[in-house]
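Quick one before lunch.
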Amino acid sequence: MQPRFLILGAGITGAALAHRLARNGASVTLVEAGLPASGASGRSFGWVNASFFLSEAHFHLRHAAMAAHRDLAAELKRPWQPEGCIWYQEQGEGFDHTAATLQSMGYPLRLLDRAAITALEPRLADPPDRALFFPGEAARDPAALTEELLAAASAQGAHLLCGLRVTGLTQGDDRITGIRTDAGDIPADHTVLCTGNGTPALLAPLGLSFPMLPRPGALMVTRPLPPLLHHILATPDQEVRQDAEGRLIAPASAHHQADAAETIAAPQALEDATLMRLRHLFPNAFIRPDRLLLADRPVPGDGLPAIGPVLPGLSMAVMHSGATLAPLVADVMALELTGQGSQPPLAPFRPARFFGP
Ligand SMILES: Cc1cc2nc3c(=O)[nH]c(=O)nc-3n(C[C@H](O)[C@H](O)[C@H](O)COP(=O)(O)OP(=O)(O)OC[C@H]3O[C@@H](n4cnc5c(N)ncnc54)[C@H](O)[C@@H]3O)c2cc1C
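Model of the flavin-adenine dinucleotide complex:
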């Protein structure tokens, strides 16, 4: 008989895993407390990149994930045309160090001078003397991708239960046997937590303390504008991109992937400051805010993803940069969950590092 998988959380991670398992013929039920992408996946900048990384293994995981996005797009019959990123977040020695490090690891990049930056982004005021161009980097809205993956998973027979909060995990003699909800228990051969910031509460009753960092995030979305920006732009104090509808999408903190602030300012102050920075970058554009989206970023205690087995019958996949990583994590984790052995790319990111011997 096919093993029954229960995946908890219908953000980008859960949706990608449900899609991959269902596509491989597994029996899959996905349980979500709210609506799909109602967590971090619905409030993400969606920058698919490996230019930000915390370790060499993290870089390689992210770099492989960029290729997984391309492959997934082909599978979903979607175009994959990375717009690339113009990066000058660091200056001076920091810039040289980033360029040399990424080059030494084989990351595709080009050095741009001021004229080349202006040629790529003619509306950008006051371009810097130099920037790096990462041609393989792309923006992909995780909320839209979540919806697409869920539709494809449903077409493969996966069941999606929304509005059903998981209140606990059920245990047999030697393994996790499923979940508890207000609507009753649901049994499973294997349960996977893709529950982002909801994960510690599900693990605590098992005696497992899973640390997550407080990392509040905010994203400003403007009203649509005429074409203004053709690439992802990462300046020292602002990251921004323009989506297909003409809206500027802009995290309210600079270097948002590395941002370690544990608190954030009031929404109005965040919006005003972000708007001021955007107007400084594009003084000739009539930029008006539409909304500010707030979400805690799901960041495990050491900043790195936590992916893999927890207990017999229970695994987890919790990470920041899920917009980048989810398609690869789903591919590799599906191999492990269907008995195809431990996958080396995941070895440095095992949850066991938090749980001790
Ligand atoms: C402002 C911001 C900017 C970001 N920018 C980027 C970026 O540029 N690039 C990048 O790669 N990443 C970025 N990220 C991070 C990325 O968005 C997340 O890593 C990713 O969305 C995590 O997806 P997930 O599916 O693992 O978690 P989530 O999207 O948080 O989904 C978890 C789901 O689990 C559900 N859930 C939780 N507990 C329970 C329960 N008990 N029962 C049932 N359901 C439950 C929740 O309702 C939620 O829908 C950003 C995040 C934020 C907030």
